[in-house]
Amino acid sequence: MASLSFIIGIIGNIISILVFTSPIKTFWQVVKKKSTEDYKSTPYITTLLSTSLWTFYGLLNPDGLLVTTVNGAGTVLQFIYVTLFLIYAPQDKKVKTLKLVALLNVGFLGLVIAVTFLATPGSVRLTVVGILCAGLTIGMYASPLSIMVPNAVGFVLGSIQLIIYAIYNKKSISKKSLEMMEEEGSAHFVKENEMGAFEDDEEANVKIRNFHKGSSLPKPSVNRQYSFQRILKTLSLSPYERHPS
Length: 245
Fold this sequence. Notes:
It is a single chain. The chain is mostly helical. It has a domain at 2-143. The chain has helices at residues 2-21, 24-33, 42-60, 65-88, 91-119, 122-142, 145-215, 224-236, 239-242. Helix 3 packs parallel to helix 5 and helix 4 (65-88) runs antiparallel to helix 5. The longest helix is centred in the C-terminal third of the chain and has 71 residues, at 145-215. It is elongated.
């Protein structure tokens, strides 16, 4: 039974080492081009931390030979990847990578080792380190979900915003249409009043013009009654009196 579990462990170690060697092709291109291009250093730094902690766990465990060997090999490979990245990365990426390495692979790893030996009883030391290693490994494999979770939340919030916009947009359109109708009615009423007032003013102006026109006509120079009497007198004359020789 022990030999079977050991064989399965060896097979698992071989597969794990193949996984650790998968970035070799990538870094071969980095060395040839002498540039890291758009590659990120974070996956290699976090994997280096994980393999380092598992190696530490294997060293604490009396039966941790397989764990120590496979993660020790992984630690060496990840260290090489991070080193190559630091050599060929641009200056800004190089600075960020150095800060991350100092924080995780030196600071955090050193803190775990110090707390394990100084503040953790020997009976639970292996359990504490194992839980920590398992948690980091799960977080490492689940890290791609950090891209999906904000997108899912954004999808839900965006949908809610669109629904609210559609509801209140209809209400605002209806209200705006009603206001436009009221404004058009008011404008029409004002226009009619203005037209009526204009027509009244025009009619009054015509009357005034006619009045002034009549008053401005030339007045007869002779009194009408005097003219009529003169006509009658002329008719009563005899032909001899009207045409004297």
